[in-house]
Structure to design on (373 residues):
């Protein structure tokens, strides 16, 4: 009797379930979980759409597809959005692999865009090829320096890189806001307007259309980043430093140098994104030019497990949802937030599916015939 009572007491103290690391799934199993998550998300979105708007959910989904692929122009715009988001995600990846939490992508993109715009305004008398070369070099350098500042402090004094890089975003935003007022046309408008609209000095040449060159350059960067991370000595050092600073030092890797070098690369690629937006497509500068891509890039990188190939898919997914949400709002005259809610639900389920791919829930076993409840 006493034994059964003790067993019952022990059993009652056990949690209802516990979480444990799952063995690596086969690729088809993990993709099955992701597909199931998307199906469930679409069902939930359909219910919410029917209850709140009375619209046919299938028509709403068709509108999302139409917003992304309805015309050739929409397809090119989607490609451009996906490419820029992918570029920022690629920039953040080396730092994240090293477990340096660079949340400053937004500011690094803005700084790259700012110096590109400055070159277009102040050096417009240079020959076009020379001007574009100067814009490219200065944007890469500006982004690298902006990321290198918190990297230096991290390597030298082990400061908190998350807060440091986050605060650098606000500094970059205020710098852009200041120069927008300096360059505003006409005065008092609060806008820079299209830079060099008449002579197109500093604009990237149009190849096929104004989006193609951006997409091509970022495709090359994607391949180069994959090779760099997977096959180069620097990529190996990044992964070792990410595993353990102590281990890296033990095998002779100079951790501080790796941190600084990696963040210079990360910032330079963000600066490239700013250059491509100003010189390639937007031809202007605003405080909202980056459009939150510095933070969306974090999600893209995590969803793809820091794999450049996987980032293409996750960037495409986020780009599709963004374009689809915008189309829903304009087509049905709904608040922009409704489309964003549907996109957020789908993303929530996709991100949640990663938990079930990597972990499993083990529930408490029922009591046996000994009378344990």
């Amino acid at each position: 009797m006493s034994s059964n009572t003790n067993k019952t007491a022990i059993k009652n103290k056990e949690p209802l379930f516990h979480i444990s690391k799952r063995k690596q799934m086969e690729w088809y199993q993990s993709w099955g979980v992701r597909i199931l998550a998307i199906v469930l998300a679409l069902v939930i979105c359909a219910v919410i759409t029917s209850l709140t708007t009375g619209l046919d959910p299938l028509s709403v989904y068709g509108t999302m597809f139409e917003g992304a692929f309805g015309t050739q122009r929409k397809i090119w715009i989607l490609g451009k959005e996906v490419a820029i988001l992918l570029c920022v995600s690629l920039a953040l990846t080396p730092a994240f692999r090293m477990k340096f939490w660079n949340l400053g992508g937004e500011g690094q993109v803005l700084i790259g865009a700012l110096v590109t715009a400055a070159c277009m305004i102040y050096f417009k008398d240079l020959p076009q090829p020379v001007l574009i070369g100067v814009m490219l070099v200065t944007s890469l350098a500006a982004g690298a320096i902006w990321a290198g500042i918190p990297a230096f402090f991290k390597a030298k004094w082990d400061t908190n890189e998350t807060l440091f890089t986050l605060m650098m975003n606000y500094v970059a935003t205020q710098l852009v806001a200041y120069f927008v007022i300096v360059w505003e046309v006409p005065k008092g408008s609060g806008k820079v307007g299209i830079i060099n609209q008449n002579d197109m000095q500093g604009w990237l040449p149009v190849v096929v259309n104004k989006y193609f060159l951006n997409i091509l350059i970022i495709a090359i960067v994607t391949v180069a980043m994959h090779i760099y991370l997977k096959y180069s000595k620097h990529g190996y050092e990044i992964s070792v430093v990410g595993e353990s600073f102590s281990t890296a030092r033990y095998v002779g890797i100079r951790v501080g140098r790796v941190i600084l070098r990696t963040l210079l690369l990360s910032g330079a690629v963000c600066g490239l994104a700013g250059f491509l937006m100003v010189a390639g497509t937007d031809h202007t500068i605003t405080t909202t030019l980056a459009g939150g891509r510095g933070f969306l890039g974090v999600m893209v990188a995590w969803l793809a497990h820091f794999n450049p190939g996987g980032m293409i898919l996750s960037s495409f997914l986020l780009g599709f949802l963004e374009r689809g949400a915008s189309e829903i709002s304009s087509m049905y005259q709904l608040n922009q937030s409704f489309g964003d809610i549907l996109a957020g639900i789908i993303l929530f389920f996709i991100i949640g599916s990663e938990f079930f791919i990597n972990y499993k829930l083990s529930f408490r076993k029922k009591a046996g015939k000994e009378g344990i409840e």
Residues 128-157 form the longest helix (30 residues). The mean pLDDT is 88. Strands lie at 17-21, 359-363. The chain has 14 helices and two strands.
